[in-house]
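Protein Record: Sequence and Backbone Structure Tokens
======================================================
Scope: a single protein chain, as residues and as a discrete description of its fold.
Tokens: labelled as protein backbone structure tokens, with as many entries as the chain has residues.
Position: the record begins directly beneath this header, with no further notes in between.
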Amino acid sequence: MQSQVVSRLRPELADHDLDAIVCISPENVAYTAGFVVPSQPLMRWRHAMTVIDGEGRTAVVCVDMEETTVRNTLGDTETEVRVWREFIDHRMSALVGLLRDWGHGDGRVGIELDYLPVSDHDYLLENLPELRLVEADSLLQAARRIKTPREIALLEQLSRISDTAIRDAFDSVSAGSTEMDLAATLTRRVYEQGAQQFKLMIVATGERSQLPNVGPTTRVLEPGDICRVEIFSVIDGYHAGVCRTAVVGEPSPIAEQVYANLVQCKHEVFAAMKPGASSREIYELFSATFRALGMPAISFVAHSIGVNLHEPPYFGPHSDQPVAPGMVLAMEPLVYQSGHGFGMQIKDMIAIEDDGARLLSDVTDTDHLYRIRA
């Protein structure tokens, strides 16, 4: 288990009058355990759970297929492992036994009600009729906003992996190559640098650069094409998303201008990311600059990131959260519909420190439009 995360959550149990908290989503299991139970994100019914109680005990509940992996990853710790047998036991039976054995069968237990299936909710209450289940999604979401030193170090590593992979993918192709060629280098470089997997690879070139979340095709790169590439590298369930924009050969004057506008917005937003600043005011600064430069502003310019690709707070017009040290944010001024047949994006990972923002995705110089060989 992640000791710094467990230490952060334990006072929350007392503050919310909880005897224990159960994490059941793949994201919050990774957040508390510090690793991903491999089949849990792939098969929703294969529940894995972490349990933390007010007496300092921790446990992982998993299916028998994953028991050896879980025990090996945990190592020699005091965390208890409870196992349910697939095809034999009910998938919540081990949790029922654990809560009963720990004396919480009639207690107040926080659990992720946004993730818990209704049938499993009913099973818990049928077998522990005195149990009081309390929504814990918001508690966990709030705790994840401020990252531990280990989380920041991991996200910094992932940021450079994503940034380097995109740069190397741009360098590996030229006019006549395909989007699939870009994707091949991108994928290989992510793994070569130590990522365990990746999420949401976006390879969008030419007129396809206007489409938000599209994968690679056999489209051939042509001189003058704008190429927008994004990838989320993943280790232990944590994500770092980086997006870079390049041009094949020489850009048109309008492409240079639109990109220069994005660079201006990037610097303004980055400079405003200081502790105590308002997320909404930062967005308003961004959108005012964007509109003054003649571009349509999107509904947010930054968001938190960690075990989910997107996490609150969002830096947009509908929320107002203070910036705080320990936050890690994805900052992404972008324009999909430039009005000139292309879209552009600069997405960086930043960490908030006592004196302002620090760039984590610092491999590529994004002040200038990256060039792909014509």
The CA atoms of residues 195 and 235 lie 6 Å apart. The two ends are 50 Å apart (CA to CA). DSSP finds ten helices and 17 strands in the chain.
